Amino acid sequence: MARGSRPAKVQEWTQRMQRFDASSLTVAEFCEAEGVSAQSYYHWKRKLGEASRPRSRFQSVRVSPAAGRSPSERTTIRLGKGIHIELGDDLSMAKQVVHQVLAVVIGTDHNTAANRTKAK
After folding, report:
1. Per-residue pLDDT of the chain in tens (120 residues, 90 and over written 9)
2. Whether this model's pTM surpasses 0.85
């Protein structure tokens, strides 16, 4: 449910969004027919969209050698949306790449974060 909203309003806008999805109208035409503003439509679209998304999209990552894997097989990191990173067979390099990717995603340097953790 959308945070900070009354359940009746959430239900009203959820049903309104379903009606829009089933219609062939533009947003402007639909809002005029419903008697609501386009600004309200976009506000609720964003609000309901946020409520339906999971809070955290992060998944834990652990790099380890696969059992029965031949030394010539490449290590591959598979991310969403079809993104694959091939790293070769150097496990330490794979760990470094994972830490660098996480640093970019999180917006911090992994070593800086590790040093802050040690200092606590």
Report:
1. 555 568 899 999 999 999 998 888 899 999 999 999 999 999 999 988 876 655 555 556 665 656 666 666 667 777 666 777 777 777 777 778 777 877 776 665 545 444 444 444
2. no
